[in-house]
Description:
Blueprint (H helix, E strand, L loop, with lengths): L15 H4 L12 E7 L8 H13 L3 E7 L5 H10 L6 E4 L4 H10 L2 E4 L8 H8 L4 E4 L4 H4 L7 E3 L2 H11 L5 H14 L2 H12 L1
Helix pairs in contact: 5-8
Amino acid sequence: DKNVIIENVYNPKNLKPFLSVDLVKKDFHKSEFIFTCVGRFDTNKRQDLLLHLVKRLKAENIKVVLYLIGSGKEKEIIVKTSKDLGINEDIVLKSDITHFEIAEIYSKTDIYFQPSMREGVPNALAEAMASGCCCVARNVGGIPDLIVDKKAGYLFNNDSELYRLVKLLLKRDQMEVRRNGRKKVIKIFDNDTNIGKLLELIR
């Protein structure tokens, strides 16, 4: 009997707009932080968790602007929730924007979030990592393929873990982790390597 080794083959991805973002050290001694999350508005994506996070930080006089980028049926619920929590002025909603516009937002982002309850290998997370964002994501689905915890990003399992993790990350820039995240996605989404793997499978 032969041992069969199955390797992941990732779809080709154009990371150029995101790799063009300069990887520079961020100033964490400032009055305002920028958080970002990209994804359709539905209950699986858990943008509501980020609203409550912003509310809790605001109560501690930690100012956050949260960019939520996407569209979907739950968008109005997110808008209403932000108003109910008294943080609607701290939320920026965007939709139908280009990769270059998203990359520009990533260049200003202090923490990128992927709090979904279910995921494959999220394009948005890969793009944020390619941009050099410090990324925080739930430990589900294909997300651990991208994020090696504490080395190329940060993973959490339960909602209750997120606040404490974010408070730690707001103390200083995570340059090494951000750099490792960029290297990781460059490696796994290398088109020549993945095309080679596909050719091997069909021979």
